[in-house]
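Treating backbone geometry as a discrete language has practical consequences that deserve illustration. Part of our work consisted of pairing the sequence of a single chain with a tokenised description of its backbone. We regard such an encoding as a compact summary of how the chain folds. The amino acid sequence and the backbone structure tokens for this protein are reproduced below.
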Amino acid sequence: MLDAAPALAVPGGPEFTVLLFVFAVPLGLACWVYADAKSRDNEYAANWGITVFLTSLFYLFPGIIVIGLYREVRE
């Protein structure tokens, strides 16, 4: 019988998959904030992107708060 998820059948596969999602979500949020700030000619675009990445990486809820703060400040 074929396994439906071959990546999960490899030793370390489930852990790697979880780590991929743990890094992919904060990275995606940071890229979105950076691109939006850059398109608005914000001089602190890199700072916003790094702040969102680090807060989302370690604590998701404060990362969401930082994104909300960015959305208020960007206008």
In short: Residues 53 and 71 are 15 Å apart (CA to CA).
